[in-house]
Design goal:
8 helices; single chain; alpha/beta
Amino acid sequence: MFYSFELEQYLGELLPGREELFKEMESQALQETIPVVTPPVGNFLAFLVKTSQASRILEIGTAIGYSTLWLAQGFEGRKGQITTIDLNVERAKRAIKYFKRAGIEEQIEVLFGDARKIVPTLEGSFDFVFVDAAKGEYLDYLSLVLARIAPGGILVVDNVLFRGWVVPGSEFVPKYNRLVTHLREFLNNLTQNPDFQTSVLPFGDGLSVSIRNR
């Protein structure tokens, strides 16, 4: 996190009370160092789904299903379907258990495997895509999902500023050079794409939000 923990904590405190299942998942993720979105980012995802009226969502990076539950909250009783993909089978199976406890398992399709191989096999387009997976593969994901987003559809990508190190002039240990360079190239490609309008938001670990021109 490239801005103060206190600020992120304060933003979380401003949110309405979360269901106990969310809090349980947050605690598990913290104990096991499982990367999940922060509550403010999760709330923002639900907000975007709700305001865009998205009904067909693709998520790359399930983990234990925390962000998936936030996405599903945006449906607010509407019909909607989420396809979520993760390479880590053990975590994805845990996510399925959480989906069942939340009573939304019928709205979620969980696919196990490499998203770079699975996405090309999916049919149709999506009106919302959320990417939160291996940062070094973001350029690969970008080339796969851009053509699958419907006109007016939204693409959200997490961790795009990666601890603030993506900002030119930042200091970090040399082993992250390749990853930082990769993310800078990803952001440049995304923001310069004439088919999308993109904003990069400096909260969480950096969030890019793009909408496909109609």
